[in-house]
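Pasting as-is:
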Amino acid sequence: MVDVPHRRPARTVRLRSVGHGELELQYRVVHGYRRAFRMAGQGPALVLIHGIGDSSDTWGELIPDLARTHTVIAPDLLGHGASDKPRADYSVAAYANGVRDLLTTLGIESATLVGHSLGGGVAMQFAYQFPERTERLILVSAGGVGREVNPVLRMVSLPGAHLMLSSLRLPGMRWQVGLAVGLMKLLDTDLGQDAPDLLNLVDALPDETSRNAFIRTLRAVVDWRGQVVTMLDRCYLTEGMPTMLLWGDRDSVVPVRHAFGAHEAMPGSRLEIFEGAGHFPFHADPGRFVSLVEEFTATTAPADWSREHWRELLCEGRPGLPLSRATERDLREASERSAT
């Protein structure tokens, strides 16, 4: 683990309880589309961005605790959860714009971003597009580092995926899939750690509109060869921005090797590994997750962004850091992938 430099003593905060009504979904119409979100608490803004096929509900167990010291905003990304699901742009850049616009309507100028899986890529993209509005980054099992990704997601990105997902809704299929999930857990496979959560994502695709939005989102970041978007080529821009990486060492979706690669490429970042956890470390050990987030935000100062510093970083480019062979390989591959 490498700590972010220039830590300061934890600030004294007044804890408050969170009312049940604060956890209910709220809505804003932005650009004509309804955006669902949960908002609770008081204090510095903390934005929780879920992964593909998921929704703000994935943070449900954590929001009450985090909202005791923060204003927590957990959106349902467009095409997900209770938000509208138009035939739209579902790229990470478009999602970053959507998060910015929602925060603007809520009167929030800057925030610490916590992004899981696809949401990690969105958080990193937000920090790249809007560094002046990003106080800290917390990336959880984030996409956009190496090419590797679970083969199931690569398969779903292929033509005909809609039929495959639709077949999971047929009578008896849910039982058969559940049986396979139980077997994977019994055999203690890495996929078994994540299978129940991944199965919940399938259950969250009840209709054709939801499935179409899911597939469009997936194809924006994954194809048959793996992940097609990279953040490695501009990780150096996080210099001076407090950044923490949280990963499960048994992640079957985005391998933990990517955590070490991102940690190498992000100057001053902090890395925390959840032993025995899969792709959802905040579900495996929510207590530790909340403690890490609270401690990190309390002991680091928000990024001090300036146009001059940003220009210097861009002009100097990626520094020649000593990197592992695997990370160097990922950086070479990054030139073959799209960088938004």
